[in-house]
Write a structure and sequence with these properties.
This protein is mainly alpha-helical and 113 residues long. The chain has helices at residues 2-16, 22-30, 37-49, 75-79, 85-112, and strands at residues 20-21, 53-57, 68-72. It is 62% helix and 11% strand.
């Protein structure tokens, strides 16, 4: 169960292309499975310990207990040390750019046909 939960969380983060808060992850998981918030927190902590995701405080919020955002780590960011939010964001941006170029190329190929 835990491994499938971790896999589901990784899939949700991969599809989002951005950092997600716990509430957003729970909302997405509710469409797939019925799991508790504490089980999701535990899975997130294990994924972070395994260096599969990175957690960082949401800088847009004011005072009070910090809420964390979670993002899937890119393979390129893991190879570099230390892992920082900027490196993860840069790797994600690079992937998004590559996907956009690929979509444009596919769209232009269809127009020529």
């Amino acid at each position: 169960m835990v491994e499938s939960l971790k896999g589901s969380i990784q899939s949700i983060l991969k599809q989002s292309n951005r950092a997600l808060a716990l509430g957003e992850i729970l909302e997405s998981l509710s469409e797939i499975t019925d799991t508790s918030a504490s089980a999701v927190r535990q899975a997130l902590n294990e994924l972070e310990a395994d260096k599969k995701i990175i957690a960082f405080p949401d800088a847009t919020l004011g005072p009070g207990r910090p809420k964390y955002l979670y993002r899937l780590l890119e393979a390129e960011a893991i190879l570099e040390s230390p892992i920082t939010r900027n490196k993860v964001e840069a790797a994600a941006e690079k992937r998004e750019t590559q996907l956009s170029v690929r979509r444009l190329a596919q769209g232009s190929t269809r127009l020529i046909s």
